[in-house]
Specification:
α4 runs antiparallel to α8. By secondary structure, this protein is mainly alpha-helical. A hairpin with a 5-residue loop joins β4 and β5. Helix content is about 55%, strand content about 10%. It contains 10 helices and 7 strands.
Length: about 300
């Protein structure tokens, strides 16, 4: 069973955000067919009137406005959680504090590690270390900007920076697979950057690790001005009544980025740039976040 989820993502066969739970309407019933939007005709849409065929052949309908038709029609598994419960997950102060803690702590770690790599690479004339450091510092500044904008509830502006942060995530993964790539990137011309290090080429090389759809959704929401970014604006309605899910998305991207960076450091024999104490601290923080925040388990697979 699947429903469209307004926070972005893609089709999955796991429960929305773990624990066997998702969005439902009405009494708990087992649904057997994908949602079909009566507005857009798209599967996985909950825009305005959606309908679902039950296993007994009847049709379940609900009127609700999501950003499927104005966003990306993301699909998640639904079983026994109402939209009100989902909103409560996102608005809960304790879980929200855990999300923010993850974002702020990883951002600070990126700042420190990036500076250490850049200075060390410059001192020992190691362009690979220097290149990895520069990209890490870029990621740290972008993440810091997102945190500040989200704190001010400037969701659209912050989401624009998240899209750039995703490109940093691509680059750090790209560098982790081959040390020479960081040095090549550092010395590349703008034309070489566009051809050798474009987001599309890195997604293609990732063989499914990074999805086109995820990137395109972020481009729609925070790239060039697009009406699909409208639900992020302050004076426009949001289907869940809260935009706190943007913190979930940021935390997940930062978690992935940090993971790629630690792999790159190990591959480059630079593990000392991120001390064991720091890694352990962030691991505990992430573990606690996943424990208390059901939203952290969101999985997007296509």
């Amino acid at each position: 069973m699947s429903v469209a989820h307004p926070l972005g993502g893609a089709r999955t066969t796991r429960p929305i955000w773990g624990h066997g739970r998702g969005v439902r309407s009405g009494p708990k019933k087992r649904l057997s067919q994908p949602v079909m939007c009566s507005s857009s005709g798209r599967r996985g849409c909950t825009n305005r009137n959606w309908m679902r065929k039950l296993s007994n052949g009847s049709i379940l309908r609900r009127r609700v406005q999501s950003d499927c038709c104005s966003n990306n029609g993301s699909v998640y598994t639904a079983m026994d959680i109402s939209a009100q419960d989902l909103s409560r997950w996102l608005a809960d102060p304790a879980t929200h504090a855990a999300r923010q803690g993850v974002c702020r702590s990883i951002t600070a770690a990126l700042m420190n590690v990036g500076a250490s790599l850049y200075v060390g690479g410059w001192l020992v004339r190691d362009p690979a270390m220097e290149g990895l450091g520069v990209v890490t510092e870029m990621g740290a500044e972008l993440a810091s900007g997102v945190v500040e904008l989200f704190t001010q509830e400037l969701w659209y502006a912050g989401t624009a920076l998240v899209r750039q942060l995703i490109e940093v995530e691509y680059l750090i993964w790209h560098f982790s697979t081959d040390r020479t790539r960081a040095a090549t990137w550092l010395a590349s011309t703008p034309e070489e950057i566009r051809t050798q290090f474009s987001p599309g080429s890195m997604r293609k090389e990732s063989a499914g690790r990074f999805r086109d759809k995820e990137y395109w959704v972020h481009c729609d929401q925070g790239g060039h001005p697009n009406p699909r970014g409208r639900p992020l604006l302050k004076n426009h309605s949001n289907p869940l009544g809260t935009r706190q899910g943007s913190w979930v998305d940021l935390a997940q991207h930062l978690e992935r980025l940090w993971g790629h960076l630690t792999i790159a450091l190990d591959e480059y024999h630079m593990s000392e740039a991120a001390a064991k104490e720091l890694r352990d601290q962030l691991s505990r923080l992430l573990e606690e976040w996943h424990r208390v925040d059901q939203a952290s388990h969101r999985r997007r697979t296509d």
